[in-house]
Design brief:
There is one protein chain. Helices cover about 45% and strands about 15% of the residues. It is of the alpha/beta class. The chain has a domain of about 325 residues: Alpha-Beta Barrel (TIM Barrel). The model has no long low-confidence stretch (mean pLDDT about 95). The structure holds zinc ion. The site of zinc ion (ZN) has 6 residues, from loops.
């Protein structure tokens, strides 16, 4: 072959490869956009009638600051976004919007301390509609720093506490390919870990998150550097790190109660479905000991019990499970997933697919394992609360089956099933998270931010009553039931306009 011809062929090959690269990139971008919910129109909040006039709620029962009782016949004055006065014999100034609280109950705005929102901005409204006025987003997309700023500046949004994405180690060719398409190439060395801490701190995240596949070297370098920089560490327990090493690692938050169960299963060698039969007995004997060490290590824990409780049904009875949740409000992109990400529906649901191809015998073993796993989560959760560990209500929202805002009320029911009192549940969803995230909210007291929920029924009598939302007050702005319903119907409309797979059979 002549040199000139060879040069020409090479040029064609290069052009072809460049075209393939861009075509692949366009395809991947469109899939990622869909799975993250970006194709769903964002509801325009300015269309709703939300006033920021001062508000007086009269004659209402108010949750005490320790969440233990209702204080009857209170008047609460709200001005400039704050609770300005509380008392039983207050005069209401003429310019206040009066809300008659007779027969109703006032609780602080709730928290989801384990949220994922992807790019689904309508989720911020789903939280508000459900009385959730503070969230910790435990995975990040760049624009969330903007969301957090907007929330601080008075947007209709929960207050946001923002984590980095989970730090993982990644190896091999695929990690290089991923990095071409914008995904993090992975933290594989102590040096890279320290560098990541510095960069994320600089970017202004509130907390840095360790993930399952972070290697030992990187993990310990990360927590050490984070400590130097006063940057709290959250996340999972990496597989290469033992439970005993976690207690005094400096990591101050665990993303799930499940982390302790998994850690102790690893120690007991019970992660294999077939070997776990005596594990529950082991955990029963050791859960208090684990909880005491967690307490001594000053580690607080997000709960995410409901996601675990949903696993038996998501794995073995998915169609019926989907009928029990408010699926119409979940961003259709997240439900449908993409070529790269699992969704929630049959055929793409990640929990269902874990058992789909098992033999009848193995399915049975897995079913038993799943049931016992849920029992283990209950045992651990109860031990944690009994030993005064700081429990933070969280739902892992947007993971299969957990719908932003709605999932917190599911979570409360699960915490009740695990043995928490209604007062403990409310504390874990109000004051405890506010303290953890550093927000001036979470209790009804003068000078606190006016993030409040008016309920028709008393949640101390039955935790289901957190669902009986009559109005939400966000940063002093009153949102009546009518406004909340309007927002919900607009979200439903936006979702339906972006839906590619019908969910009719689950409604
Ligand atoms: Zn999560």
């Amino acid at each position: 072959m002549k040199f000139a011809t060879l040069k020409k062929s090479l040029l064609y090959i290069i052009i072809f490869l460049i075209l393939v690269y861009f075509a692949t990139k366009v395809f991947i971008d469109s899939q990622v956009k869909h799975q993250n919910g970006l194709n769903t129109p964002v509801v325009d909040i300015s269309q709703f009638n939300i006033s920021d006039a001062p508000v007086a709620i009269t004659n209402i029962s108010v949750l005490s600051t320790d969440s233990s009782e209702m204080l009857d016949n209170q008047t609460v004055l709200i001005k400039n976004g704050l609770i300005s006065k509380i008392g039983s014999e207050l005069q209401v100034p003429g310019d206040y919007t009066k809300v008659d609280g007779s027969g109703k109950f006032l609780i602080p705005g709730l928290a989801d301390t384990h949220a994922h929102t992807y790019n689904s901005k309508n989720d911020l409204l789903l939280y508000i509609v459900n009385g959730v006025t503070q969230i910790a987003i435990l995975s990040s997309h760049p624009e969330m720093l903007e969301w957090r700023k907007d929330a601080k500046n008075g947007a209709i949004s929960p207050q946001i506490f923002l984590s980095t994405g989970g730090l993982n180690s990644k190896y091999g060719f695929m990690s290089v390919v991923r990095s071409w398409f914008g995904s993090h190439p992975g933290i594989n060395t102590a040096e890279q870990a320290r560098e990541a801490v510095e960069i994320y701190k600089e970017q202004g995240f509130d907390v840095i998150k360790a993930y399952e596949y972070l290697n030992r070297e990187s993990y310990f370098a990360m927590v050490e550097e984070a400590k130097k920089q006063h940057f709290p560490v959250s996340g999972h327990i990496p597989e290469e790190v033992t439970l005993d090493e976690i207690y005094h690692s400096g990591q101050s938050h665990l993303a799930h109660v499940e982390e302790l169960v998994k850690g102790s299963m690893r120690q007991y060698n019970a992660l294999d479905n077939r070997k776990n039969l005596s594990y529950l007995q082991y955990l029963n004997n050791n859960a208090d000991d684990i909880a005491k060490k967690v307490k001594a290590g000053n580690i607080s824990i997000s709960t995410t019990v409901w996601l675990m409780e949903s696993l038996p049904q998501q794995r073995f009875d998915l169609e019926n499970f989907l009928k029990t949740i408010e699926l119409e409000y979940e961003n259709p992109g997240v439900i449908e997933g993409s070529v790269f990400a699992s969704g929630w529906l049959p055929g793409s649901n990640r929990y269902e697919s874990q058992v789909r191809d098992l033999s009848t015998e193995d399915r049975e073993i897995s079913r038993q394992f799943t049931d016992e796993y849920v029992q283990a989560i209950y045992i651990m959760t109860k031990a944690l609360v009994d030993n005064d560990v700081i429990l933070l209500a969280g739902s892992d929202s947007n993971t299969a089956g957990t719908i932003a805002g709605f999932s917190m009320h599911d979570e409360f029911q699960s915490l009740s099933n695990a043995g928490l009192s209604n007062s403990q549940i409310l504390h874990s969803a109000t004051l405890a998270p506010s303290k953890w995230m550093g927000f001036n909210s979470g209790q009804i007291a003068e000078g606190m931010r006016a993030d409040l929920v008016i309920l028709d029924n008393n949640p101390l009598l039955d935790i289901k009553n957190t669902r009986s939302i009559n109005a939400v007050i966000l940063n002093g702005k009153l949102m009546t039931r009518e406004v909340l319903d309007d927002i919900l119907s607009q979200i439903k409309k936006a979702n339906n306009s972006a839906r590619e797979i019908s969910i009719e059979q689950y409604l």
